[in-house]
Amino acid sequence: MNFLAISGSARQASTNTALLEVMADMAPSGMQVTVFDFLQQLPIFSPDLEGAAMPDKVREFIDLIGAVDGLII
Prior knowledge:
Layout: E1 2-6, H1 15-25, E2 32-36, H2 56-66, E3 70-72
Parallel strand pairs: 1-2, 1-3
């Protein structure tokens, strides 16, 4: 199973992100945990940035979520 772990902190020295990274390192065989590490690059919600104007980082985030079996937040 594949999981995407999203920290609510964009702080470089975030303890929440560090915890998720340890979780990813300790994941059992057959389970992959990917830590989402570019929260600070996502724009605030704006309908004007949908469709063709959608930033690449937002599209990447959507694709990551669509490709996993679950989320860890």
